[in-house]
Amino acid sequence: KLDFHPAGRHFLQIPGPSPVPDRILRAMSLPTIDHRGPEFGVLGLKVLEGIRKIFKTTQPVVIYPASGTGAWEAALTNTLSPGDAVLMYETGHFATLWKKMAENLGLKPEFLGLPGTEGWRRGVQADRIEARLRADAGHTIKAVCVVHNETSTGVTSDIAAVRRAIDAAGHPALLLVDTISGLASADYRHDEWGVDVTVSGSQKGLMLPPGISFNAVSPKALEASKTAKLPRSFWGWGEIIEMNKQGYWPYTPSTNLLYGLAEAIDMILAEGLENVFARHQRLAGACRAAVTAWGLDIQCADPAVYSPVLTGVMMPEGIDADAVRKLIYEHFDMSLGTGLGKVKGRMFRIGHLGDCNDLTLMATLSGCEMGLRLAGVKLAGSGVVAAMDHLTRHAVKPALGM
Ligand code: PLP
Question: Structure pTM?
Fold first, then answer.
């Protein structure tokens, strides 16, 4: 709890939920309408059509009134049967939670990865998936499950490479991908990358409050759902997709979050998806320039898979990352992401996703730099200056005197 009354806005710089723009808050404040009435069907069709563009798919996208965890469960229960072997990959805390869920549901997950926390610094190694699938001559593995943007580490895996690995092995396993924190921030292509189920959520790149989540579903996944035997009722795709054809749901949908979703889609498509991705890359580059100038390590050890969504900052030996976060919260009214699971206390996470611009990032980095100094962390130099330098060198418009 803050012991003073902070003026101005709280800085919500965790890697989701991300700040909700005023425009979206206003859209959500409209009166709730009859979810079986004529106006609702128009809204339903609009968001169902629009969200496909964000996933880059022409296939159905199912929207659940649930957090991302619900959409994880939906992806597994719609496509798999009790006792099915699934190949999962340890990229971090969220991959670990998804694997635990698979166990809870009675699946047999096999967890590929590197020892200790080594895998928490690198993306999915597609060649290891290929080798494992080649060894599975009897095709007992029914699905490969990977996290695209691992929110606990700031590593964005190469999903196209995973697709190529499955194809190279000539294996029929489904490809299930979690891009809960990647969608609408990091380049993502459901159809082109041949993903069978993409799982996502509202509270990250879509700039909405938490509360709705998604399954983008390929024809192969839909076919699998007809024979898959895991119990499901609320999560079942069939009835939802049928009623979605008219813009309705079999149950009461989150009407006001769908108002927000319609607004978010308009905002993202007006900026242009590719521009949204480029903005995130540029801000992430500036954030990494800051961390490097401080002389601190970035959690992601492979530049090829740096996340455009968040940056994990590792603390020097003997410094408790959560104590630094607490100090920053108490002095500057800013929330940063805690280290999760195996890296708890060893690092913190800076979110630069969604409704974030140059000055949001600069204020965030200023808070971090002041906080690190106040916490007694020895810094090699000014990250703030390095980030400003990065942003001006990569200016978005032509400038005089550069
Ligand atoms: N997967 C990833 C990559 C996430 O970042 C999160 C949440 O941060 C989840 C799954 C779980 O989603 P939720 O907390 O919305 O249930």
Answer: 0.98
pLDDT tens, 139-149? Answer: 999 999 999 99
Residue 220 near residue 211 (C-beta atoms within 8 A): no
Instruction: Identify the residue whose tokens are 């606990």.
Output: 152
Nearest residue to 156 (alpha-carbon basis) of 317, 335, 277, 13: 277
Tell me the CATH class for 23-269: alpha beta
Q: Is the CB of 180 under 6 A from ligand 1?
A: yes
| Of the candidates 302, 311, 312, 314, the residue with the CA atom closest to the CA atom of residue 281 | 311
Could you tell me where in the chain the CATH 3.40.640.10 domains are found? 23-269
Place domain 11-19+272-393 in its CATH homologous superfamily: Aspartate Aminotransferase, domain 1 (3.90.1150.10)
Instruction: Return the number of other C-beta atoms located less than 10 Å from residue 30's C-beta.
Output: 11
Tell me if 178 CB under 6 Å of ligand 1.
Answer: yes
Quote the ipTM score. Answer: 0.99
Q: Where are the alpha helices (DSSP H) in 209-272?
A: 219-225, 237-244, 255-271
CB–CB of 78/215 below 8 Å? yes
What length does the chain have?
A: 402
Contact 368, 274 (CB under 8 A): no
367 lines ligand 1 (CB under 6 A): no
Nearest CA to ligand 1 atom 12: 68
Residue 201 β-bridge partners: 213
